[in-house]
Design goal:
heterotrimer; A alpha/beta (about 220); B alpha+beta (about 550); C mainly beta (about 575); B: about 550 residues; alpha+beta; five-stranded antiparallel β-sheet; five-stranded mixed β-sheet; 12 strands; about 60% helix; about 15% strand; rod-shaped; C: about 575 residues; mainly beta; about 10% helix; globular; GerMN (chain C)
Chain lengths: ~220, ~550, ~575
């Protein structure tokens, strides 16, 4: 359950405070205060999760997010002061798995971090097939034919959640709870953005999805309509 | 037989009336819409009146002049004739032969064109009443003229207009002059055929010229209006485009006349407007940036404080009582401070016009259920029970989930806060175009005039009363803005000791215009107790 | 703005200044377009009135006679005058018209509800139903019967069928117009006028009646002269319309068999007497017909000008006898003697002006001299005891007509060019001495001065083929009752004579224009002397021979200058003559 958490934040006080909380919860935090050095620090520490502030001196948090996502599928949770749609969507689209709006409660933060780290402890061997997509749940791999499709852990969880019960319609709230671990209603935009990202990777034609299908007014389901 | 005739006549009349009304309507519409039609029609009507009046006047003048000339000539001829007759009658005996010769002489003087006819009346001989020239009928001399001439002294001429009839059955208008010579009466009868022809020619000419003049004036009016209206309508088009947001729209400036000045002024105005709008836009951008920055800058330390406070709060049991209480207070006030900050930021977002609607089709009941679920705990603490009156089927509407939830939470919290522990009723209703959610409490209610004030920022019904639920005083104000962003209404009703009701009405389709609400603003049980007339005032207030 | 107003005012003033009549312009020729044809001379009608209340029989008759002078009513049937009658239909005045000079009521007899009024008139002549006037002067007694009607008003119950009209009534109510027919001569087409009296009901009626009478043929009197007409028998007038100078004559289908040229000539010459007619359009059964040689359907008067009854061509010179008995032509101010050896009295020049017929000085021989050769031959000697020839007369064929008279009678001779002489058989004037005889140019009529007792009367006879094969002159009628002492006569044109004579009222001889139709005679102002002889030719000045007593006795021939209306005389000349 312990994990390494890289905190990317320019605010020293907040970083320290986060450090106190995380350590109190048994995580191993490391810190970087500059966007320019974030990638470097990420390569050095190889964290299990990245806490990333969106507003950073040097490279913007969104760019940092892209850089990290380009190297690894490690879970990224964004810290943002901007709850505006545009900023959140921008952050999510750049590769973040989840976000927390400042100010937040320490418990909330810990809950999110835990939720992102939990899946790594769940090695049940299982093979799923959706359309022409084969999913090896234990092996964390998704293939179309022989071709491997790289997915982030969150995208993988989302696909697995849908694929485990094909043809069942999941509302966004249900998905939020199952995939992100939210008890209470949160921002359903998380689901939307990640479904779009998933489709971009696994669908032949993302404009006309065949694997993850939208059910208007309700949510999503796996498999053909 | 009479009745069907009458009915068919009435039906015909009705058809005619309908057609006339339709034509009138079309004409009226054109009349209202086009300056040109108005100006041309007015010119036509006015010039028609002027031409008609002028024509009648001219015709009268010409007729008078012509007839006066004719009369003068006729009297001169008569004078001449009377002189000749007197001469002949003086030298010879006045037997019928002399009279015959007199008439012959006089008739010969009429010339080959038949300028006039002569009648000489002599009723002394039995069987003969005088002589007439050519085929004129003696009856052409009107009796009124004969009586006048008979009574008058000799050689006094009289004249009148009458109808000359001839032996071959024809007749013509004519001027008849007569005078007495000795015991006889001489009448000259002038047919007015030539004058009539002249007058007809003049009349036709007047008609033609009048019509041409009218058309010409109408054409001129049309041309002039065109010259004025086209630039004006171009200006109107430009203004419309400008109003539609195309700030780069400008008018063409041609010449140096008034219209050119209009165009120049318009362009100046447009340029100024564009400049101002660009300025404002930039200002707004700057402000938004500022707000965003402030938000970030404020939030980051707030987060630190918050976490720190939380840590302290978690560890309060290890502190001494004073310190422990301080940690508690710090915790609660931080929450309030955070709420205030959030609301303030929301309001500043509205003011900057940065608020956007993220609409999706949602069952409104679901939102209500969730909001109620969120506030139930608070209500229980205050001793209130939240009663829900929801429709049986899904009530779908295109709304922004976040905003509507926020509105509902605000309303419920507000109701709980002022509900004095009594029941709170949430009802949902929908019709074809709109959904409405009403939140009713039975608390102290609102005093007259307060139904509007409740949406003012930081407004408080009783300044002396303490806030118990830690509301920021901005909730209703934000809710009102949220409702307005949807194109909906948020209205309040309240009476002292009757409680209050807040009604949110939203169009089912985002951006559609809201025409009415499926729920009454005033609760039905109150309405029933009311006098029928008070309703009007309240509706007006709403 | 103010300048604009001033400009408008200025323009307005300029425009109003233009109004008015021009005080000068260029000279423009041409007739007024669209003018109306001049209508005929004005005429005067009496205004008749019906009987007054309680008039006595005498007054009724006087008023009736006055009122019957009016041809009122739609067809000139005396509508007002009929109000005096007890029975409207019992009076048909169309038979003939008695023309009188004086009238007087000689007796009025009233017996209860009946009365009779006797009227005596001095009759001058009669107009027949065909319009032919015959002078017949005598005293006439007429009796009218009257009776009272239910309202005690006298009305005429019986009256003569003739219309009694005074000379003035006739002058006023009738028009004398010529109908034109062709002379019997088949070689030369010559129009013969046939004067008729037509009542002037109104202008339309007059023109229609004129054409109807033309279609009906010549008057009974002229019919004897065997004149020819182009209209087939039974031809009727369907319609006559005169407008814009064009007379449209629509004839019935019978006209199809007639000669269109002849009909057109007759119609044109007859209708052109009406001043409103210039052109003729002939239709048969409503369809316009094209007349050969007339150039289109509308014929102008000039097309048929060649058929002028007065002849055409140059106006001939006049001839006179000089004091020494020689024949001289009036070429200039001095008469030109052409044949110095020839001595003539009463010369008559042939129409071709090559021959001259003359009477010898003694008056008992007629000679004919060829003026080109100068050869004279005696053609005729008097046959009657003490017979004297009056001036001979030529016709168009070169015949010489000569009449010899003594105190008891006369004889007529015709000298045709080939033969020597023919005594004309049918000479109805044989019992009377004849003072003068002139044959008309067309050769169908003869005008004569006949000595009847104390009266020398102007009479008109016709020349027609005699049953024996030759020609005869018969059917002489008096054409005027006024001229009681005629001296000499000549044809002025086809239907007018110039007569020197005296009337009852004026015993000294004057020159008169006498229409052969019997119309009113008009005096012509003479040269002033004692007129002896007269010569005329259509279009040529009138020549009058006179004797002037002072300042010294002188015979001269005077001619009436058209230009100044004055007489100019050739001294020491006499016996004027024109061809004819």
């Amino acid at each position: 359950m312990k994990g390494r958490v890289l905190v990317v934040d320019d605010d020293l006080a907040l970083a320290e405070m986060l450090g106190i909380v995380l350590r109190g919860e048994g995580f191993e935090p490391s810190f970087v205060h500059d966007g320019d050095k974030a990638l470097e620090a990420f390569r050095e520490t190889r964290p299990d999760l990245v806490l990333l502030d969106l507003m950073l001196p040097g490279i913007d948090g969104i760019d940092v997010c892209r850089q990290i996502r380009a190297e690894a599928g490690v879970p990224i949770v964004m810290l943002t002061a901007k709850s505006d749609t545009v900023d959140v969507v921008l952050g999510l689209e750049s590769g973040a798995d989840d976000y927390i709006v400042k100010p937040f409660k320490p418990k909330e933060l810990v809950a999110r971090v835990r939720a992102r780290l939990r899946r790594t402890d769940d090695p049940t061997p299982e093979l799923l097939q959706i359309g022409d997509i084969a999913i090896d749940v234990a092996g964390h791999s998704v293939k179309r034919g022989d071709r491997h499709i790289p997915l982030t852990p969150l995208e993988f969880d989302l696909l697995v959640a849908l694929a485990r019960k094909p043809r069942q319609v999941f509302t966004r709230e249900v998905l939020l709870e199952q995939v992100w671990g939210y008890r209470h209603a949160a921002d359903t935009r998380l689901v939307n953005v990640h479904v779009q990202r998933l489709r971009a990777k696994i669908e032949k034609d993302p404009e006309h999805p065949e694997i993850v299908v939208t059910v208007r007014g309700v949510g999503y389901k796996a498999g053909p309509a | 037989m009479r009745i069907p005739l009458k009915t068919s006549a009435r039906r015909g009349l009705r058809v005619i009336r309908r057609l006339a009304r339709a034509a009138l309507g079309a004409t009226h519409a054109r009349w209202r819409r086009s300056i040109r039609v108005r100006v041309v029609t007015t010119t036509l009507v006015v010039s028609a009146i002027v031409v008609a009046v002028l024509g009648v006047f001219l015709m009268q003048q010409i007729t008078n002049a012509l007839l006066e000339a004719k009369e003068r000539a006729a009297l001169l001829q008569l004078d001449d004739g009377v002189g000749i007759a007197q001469g002949q009658l003086a030298t010879g005996p006045s037997d019928p032969e002399t009279l015959n010769n007199v008439v012959t002489t006089l008739a010969r003087r009429s010339g080959t064109a038949g300028l006039y006819e002569v009648i000489l009346i002599d009723d002394r001989d039995p069987g003969i009443n005088g002589f007439s020239s050519n085929s004129i009928k003696p009856g052409s001399v009107p009796t009124r003229l004969r009586l006048q001439v008979e009574r008058a002294p000799a050689s006094t001429p009289y004249r009148t207009y009458g109808r000359l009839s001839y032996d071959d059955g024809t007749s013509a208008a004519g001027l008849i002059v007569g005078a007495k010579v000795n015991a006889y009466q001489i009448y000259y009868l002038f047919p007015l055929t030539q004058e009539r022809q002249s007058l007809v020619v003049v009349q036709r000419t007047l008609f033609g010229v009048g019509a041409a003049l009218m058309l010409l004036l109408a054409a001129i009016a049309s041309l002039v209006t065109r010259q004025v209206v086209i630039p004006v309508s171009l200006a109107a088009q430009s203004a419309e485009r400008l109003a539609a947001g195309r700030l780069e729209e400008r008018m063409k400036v041609r010449g140096e006349d008034d219209l050119a000045r209009l165009a120049t002024s318009f362009n100046d105005m447009a340029a100024n407007l564009q400049e101002k709008i660009v300025q404002l836009e930039e200002l707004s951008k700057v402000q938004r940036q500022f707000v965003s920055d402030v938000s970030h800058e404020l939030r980051t330390p707030l987060t630190t404080i918050r976490i720190a406070a939380d840590v302290l709060y978690e560890a309060r049991e290890e502190f001494d009582p004073l310190t422990s209480r301080s940690a508690e207070l710090l915790q609660s006030q931080l929450e309030r401070f955070e709420g205030l900050l959030t609301d303030l930021l929301e309001i500043s977002r509205y003011e900057a016009g940065a608020a956007t609607l993220d609409a999706e089709s949602i069952d409104v009941r679901e939102l209500v259920l969730r909001a109620v679920g969120d506030t139930e705990g608070l209500a229980e603490r205050k001793g209130s029970k939240i009663i829900q009156q929801l429709p049986g089927e899904a009530t779908m509407a295109e709304v922004d989930r976040r905003r509507v939830e926020r509105i509902l939470r605000n309303l419920l919290v507000n109701a709980v806060e002022h509900g004095e522990g009594k029941d709170i009723v949430v009802s949902v209703a929908a019709d074809r175009d709109a959904v409405a959610i009403a939140v009713r409490d039975h608390g102290c209610g609102l005093r007259p005039g307060e139904a509007h004030l409740v949406f003012d920022r930081f407004w408080r019904a009783d300044p002396a009363r303490a806030r118990t639920t830690g509301g920021t005083g901005l909730g209703l104000s934000i809710s009102k803005e949220d409702a307005r962003l949807h194109g909906g209404w948020l209205q309040a009703w309240g009476e002292p000791d009757q409680g209050s009701q807040f009604r949110l009405s939203l169009p089912r389709v985002a951006g559609a215009e809201l025409r009415g609400s499926p729920l009454p603003l005033v609760p039905p049980e109150i309405e029933l107790r009311r006098a029928p007339y008070a309703e009007l005032k309240l509706e007006a207030d709403a | 703005m103010r300048r604009g107003l001033a400009l408008v005012t200025l323009v307005l003033f300029a425009v109003t200044g233009c109004a008015g009549v021009p005080s000068g312009s260029q000279v423009v020729g041409g007739r007024v377009t669209g003018h109306r044809q001049p209508i005929d001379d004005p005429y005067v009608r009496v205004i008749p009135v019906g009987p007054g209340r309680d008039w006595d029989p005498g007054k009724i008759i006087t008023a009736f006679q006055a009122a019957s002078g009016s041809f009122d009513g739609p067809n000139g049937d005396h509508k007002v005058a009929r109000e005096y009658l007890a029975c409207g239909g019992c009076w048909q005045p169309g038979i003939s018209t008695v023309v009188y000079d004086r009238i007087e009521q000689t007796s009025v007899q009233i017996g209860g509800a009946r009365a009779s009024v006797t009227v005596e008139v001095d009759q001058l002549g009669k107009i027949g139903s065909d319009g032919q006037y015959i002078a017949d002067s005598h005293r006439l007694k007429v009796t009218y019967q009257l009776r009272q009607d239910a309202q005690k008003q006298w009305r005429i119950s019986w009256l003569p069928q003739e219309l009694l009209l005074s000379r003035n009534d006739v002058n006023r109510a009738f028009r004398t117009l010529d109908l034109y027919f062709f002379s019997p001569d088949r070689q030369v087409k010559v129009l013969v006028p046939n004067p008729v009296f037509i009542p002037m009901v109104n202008r339309t009626w007059l023109s229609q009646q004129l054409v109807k009478q033309l279609l009906g043929g010549p008057t009974t009197w002229l019919r004897g002269a065997a004149v020819r007409t182009g209209f087939p028998g039974g031809t009727q007038l369907r319609r006559l319309d005169i407008s814009g100078g064009v007379a449209t004559v629509d004839l019935s289908r019978q006209a199809r068999s007639g000669d269109l040229r002849n009909m057109s000539i007759q119609l044109m010459w007859t209708l052109r007497q009406l001043r409103e007619v210039d052109q003729l359009k002939l239709e048969i059964e409503g369809k316009p017909v094209e007349v050969p040689g007339a150039g289109g359907t509308v014929q102008s008067a000039s097309v048929w000008a060649g058929y002028d009854p007065d002849g055409q061509g140059d106006v001939p010179r006049g001839w006179v006898r000089t004091a020494d008995g020689r024949l001289a032509r009036l070429d200039s101010s001095v008469p030109q003697v052409l044949l110095p050896k020839l001595r003539v009295s009463h010369p008559a020049i042939s129409y071709d002006a090559r021959q001259v017929a003359a009477v010898s000085k003694s008056g008992d021989t007629v000679t004919v001299t060829d003026m080109t050769t100068g050869g004279t031959r005696v053609v005729l000697h008097a046959k009657l005891a003490g017979g004297r020839f009056c001036k001979p007369s030529w016709d168009l064929h070169g015949n010489v007509w000569a009449v010899e008279s003594n105190s008891r009678g006369s004889r007529l001779w015709e000298i045709t060019p080939g033969t020597t002489k023919i005594a004309v058989d049918g000479w109805t004037l044989a019992p009377y001495p004849v003072r003068a005889l002139r044959i008309s140019r067309d050769g169908t009529r003869a005008a004569a001065i006949v000595q009847m007792g104390q009266v020398s009367q102007v009479q008109l006879g016709r020349v027609d083929p005699a049953p024996t094969g030759g020609l005869q002159a018969e059917g002489f009628i008096a054409i005027n009752s006024d001229l009681s002492a005629a001296v000499d006569l000549t044809w002025r044109d086809a239907d007018h004579l110039a007569v020197i004579g005296a009337t009852d009222g004026n015993p000294s001889p004057l020159l008169y224009d006498v229409p052969v139709g019997g119309g009113a005679i008009q005096p012509i102002m003479g040269p002033g002397g004692d007129m002896k002889a007269v010569a005329a030719y259509p279009g040529a000045p009138l020549l009058v021979a006179q004797h002037v007593a002072s300042p010294q006795p002188l015979d001269n021939v005077c001619w009436l200058s058209d230009k100044y209306g004055e007489w100019k005389c050739y001294d020491r000349t006499s016996a004027p003559a024109y061809p004819g």
